[in-house]
């Protein structure tokens, strides 16, 4: 038992170290030692033909720097098709070549007042001058008040993912070519403060359930609320039952239920706050995930013990080491899957947890346990 606790504590620590924040209100700094910085992937909803303003996606914010720049560098908002090449080529060791290759496809379609006046609006030259609009914003009416730039995302066919990033490359408008920015002074940093929302910031009060959320997370708040209400009824009932009926099975089940209740509560708090400010409490959400894993593994222990007849036909446990060994492996694989998901899955891969090898492992594991039950 003690070993198991130790393993969980260690895993929790590992998870906390690799912590990545997912939010729609981004604040941070791009430093000169990062050549490239990926900011976020966000799903924008399908635009409704009849209420365009209310259903467009908006990206707006400020990007400024305390340092002077000889050449502005680049902030890119790209759809998946354009992002793939751009993202792959960032790894090229020679950064001069990297800039050229990253922008080969984008160069043909991105707007530039001199080189490509009929292109689309993907790029901004950053940093923007303090207390002014960014250089690429030609019409101040299109910019959300109190911010320096605004993108409006419209897709009449389907919801789509967009990828935000910054890269130390600049465009030479004389030669229409991309170059790596290497400042003479050496060091710089750029501060950003960016919002990504679904629906116009002007009328955000009408849709607070969807406004801050990426398309794939919209309306999860209602779901969590509904589950939480169910638990509010079930948990007190179960607690009452466990007081009357002092049976080990009931106790274990209650423990599992309580853990899940705590998990749900944490996630709900995070989601509620997120719907208001686009940040939420990322640490609380992660704690919720961990409680959820604990709940599932304790439920698995209950199933294993029941299947071996413990507390049903006899209170004495045979095969003890085997059952606990299997359970321990199951718990470890579960934690592994969670950490893997946080750290190893590349942002451009559109996959869920069961398409990675720990995901496969857990399915195989469950099937094996099932076979063992028969
Ligand atoms: C963003 O820039 C505008 C000026 O264009 C300024 O009024 C506003 O306070 C800035 N907002 C933040 C959060 O820095
Ligand atoms: C918000 O509303 C104001 C006034 O109604 C309008 O001028 C501005 O263009 C709107 N902004 C956006 C981003 O739609
Ligand atoms: C841009 O290209 C022109 C022509 O190739 C060159 O003369 C100029 O120095 C370049 N400017 C920068 C900032 O690289
Ligand atoms: C980038 O696009 C412009 C306009 O389409 C073109 O004139 C220029 O040659 C392109 N540059 C490169 C490096 O392909």
TrEMBL record:
GO terms for biological process: G protein-coupled receptor signaling pathway; response to pheromone. Residues 1-23 form the signal peptide. InterPro entries: GPR180/TMEM145, GPR180/TMEM145_TM. It holds the Pfam family GPR180-TMEM145_TM. Residues 227-374 form the GPR180/TMEM145 transmembrane domain. The keyword RNA-binding does not apply. Keywords: Membrane, Signal, Transmembrane, Transmembrane helix. The chain crosses the membrane at residues 223-242, 249-270, 290-310, 322-342, 354-373. PANTHER family: INTIMAL THICKNESS RECEPTOR-RELATED (PTHR23252), INTIMAL THICKNESS RELATED RECEPTOR IRP DOMAIN-CONTAINING PROTEIN (PTHR23252:SF43). This is GPR180/TMEM145 transmembrane domain-containing protein.
């Amino acid at each position: 038992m003690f070993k198991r606790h130790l393993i969980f504590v260690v895993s929790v620590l590992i998870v906390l170290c690799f912590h990545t924040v997912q939010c729609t209100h981004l604040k941070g700094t791009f430093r000169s030692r990062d050549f490239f910085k990926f900011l976020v992937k966000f799903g924008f909803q399908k635009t409704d033909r009849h209420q365009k303003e209310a259903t467009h996606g908006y990206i707006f914010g400020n990007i400024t720097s305390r340092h002077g720049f000889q050449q502005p560098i680049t902030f890119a908002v790209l759809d998946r098709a354009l992002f793939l090449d751009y993202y792959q080529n960032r790894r090229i060791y020679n950064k001069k070549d990297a800039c050229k290759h990253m922008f080969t496809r984008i160069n043909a379609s991105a707007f530039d007042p001199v080189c490509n006046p009929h292109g689309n609006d993907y790029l901004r030259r950053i940093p923007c001058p303090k207390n002014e609009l960014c250089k690429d914003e030609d019409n101040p009416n299109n910019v959300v008040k109190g911010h320096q730039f605004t993108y409006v995302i419209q897709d009449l066919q389907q919801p789509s993912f967009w990828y935000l990033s910054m890269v130390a490359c600049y465009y030479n408008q004389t030669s229409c070519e991309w170059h790596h920015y290497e400042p003479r002074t050496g060091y710089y940093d750029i501060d950003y403060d960016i919002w990504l929302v679904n629906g116009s910031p002007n009328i955000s009060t009408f849709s607070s359930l969807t406004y801050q959320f990426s398309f794939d997370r919209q309306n999860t708040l209602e779901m969590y609320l509904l589950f939480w209400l169910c638990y509010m009824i079930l948990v007190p009932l179960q607690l009452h039952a466990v007081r009357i009926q002092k049976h080990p099975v009931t106790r274990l089940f209650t423990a599992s239920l309580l853990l899940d209740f705590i998990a749900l509560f944490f996630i709900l708090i995070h989601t509620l706050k997120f719907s208001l400010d686009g940040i939420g409490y990322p640490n609380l959400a992660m704690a919720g995930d961990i409680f959820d894993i604990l709940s599932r593994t304790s439920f698995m222990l209950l199933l294993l013990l029941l299947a071996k007849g413990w507390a049903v036909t006899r209170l004495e446990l045979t095969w003890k080491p085997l059952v606990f060994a299997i359970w321990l492996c199951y718990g470890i694989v579960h934690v592994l899957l969670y950490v893997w998901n946080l750290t190893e899955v590349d942002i451009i891969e559109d996959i869920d947890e069961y398409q990675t090898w720990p995901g496969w492992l857990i399915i195989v594991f469950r099937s094996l346990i099932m076979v063992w039950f028969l």
